[in-house]
């Protein structure tokens, strides 16, 4: 799960799963609807703009704004292979947190791009679709579900349809403006550039996972850490040391300041086994077996090899002090 703080309003969006690939919808939406169609990976600022446009169109047409989210099936080919910014559960939470959609519909992603007539037929089979909006340059599952030709066909069929450009200032000064926003954000996360990724996402990037056993070396150093086993599909930030906040089980938002290490622990490790270790600055819990969420706030420094345990501990003290300042805790 992500660290989105949920409210009564954001919990209101209903979730619908249309399970069977290629079959008619399991249920038809009641009343007029407008559709925002995307894979919503990251539920970033571009997707927020898409949601706002769908809501505006819904208001003009006395309709309900609905998110249509294609999700790869096990037979989805390359759609299942690429690392992602968000899991399905995280996407749903983030879309709910926008407070715009009345419904979120999850459908199987086509294994190959649909022909325009079939794509439009599948979309319109969901109900009384008064308008649809998608990204100007869809990729992956969203592109397979609704190719650009289908948008043009929808207009000819009397359905208001438009393709939105991504926000021009979402990544000011990004290296490759031709790359879709989600791909550029993923590259920033993979490079450890968390401040820029946060600005483009609209929230701090989060990795959730189960706390698993380690070699307990941190306890011997005076810094007991929680070793995280993340979802294998997630993009993991670059090796290094980060200031972060942690959400523990049962909490709705991240409350605990932490220092997080990602890497191969060059002072002690074998140089190959990559780990995510979180040290909570002001908490002492046995978290083995628990699922926690780590919200990355800032990159502190690269991973380093130290000649002595004493030198490592001295640097860890500095990391904790710097994290406290960045996170605003005493």
Task: Fill in the keyword field for this structure.
330 residues; alpha/beta; Rossmann fold; Elongation Factor Tu (Ef-tu), domain 3; six-stranded parallel sheet; 10 helices; 12 strands; disordered N terminus
Portion of residues in beta strands equals 15-25%
Quick one: CATH superfamily of the largest domain? Answer: HUPs
Number of domains: 2
Order of helices and strands: HEEHEHEHEHHEHHEHEEEEEH
SS summary, helix count: 10
Rounded to the nearest angstrom, the distance between the terminal CA atoms is 28 Å
Poorly predicted runs: 1-10, 76-80
- Overall SS class: alpha/beta
Biggest beta sheet summary: 6 strands, parallel
Question: What's the SSE blueprint?
Answer:
Blueprint: H1 8-11, E1 14-17, E2 32-37, H2 45-60, E3 64-71, H3 88-97, E4 103-108, H4 116-124, E5 128-135, H5 140-145, H6 148-156, E6 160-164, H7 181-190, H8 194-201, E7 206-212, H9 217-221, E8 226-230, E9 240-247, E10 256-263, E11 275-280, E12 291-301, H10 309-327
Parallel strand pairs: 1-4, 2-3, 2-5, 3-4, 5-6
Antiparallel strand pairs: 7-8, 7-12, 8-11, 9-10, 9-12, 10-11
Tell me what the structure shows.
This protein is of the alpha/beta class. The protein folds into two domains: 157 residues, HUPs (Rossmann fold), CATH 3.40.50; 124 residues, Beta Barrel (Elongation Factor Tu (Ef-tu), domain 3), CATH 2.40.30. It is 29% helix and 25% strand. The strands form two sheets. A six-stranded parallel beta sheet has the order 1-4-3-2-5-6, with helices on both faces. A six-stranded antiparallel beta barrel has the order 7-8-11-10-9-12. The N terminus is likely disordered.
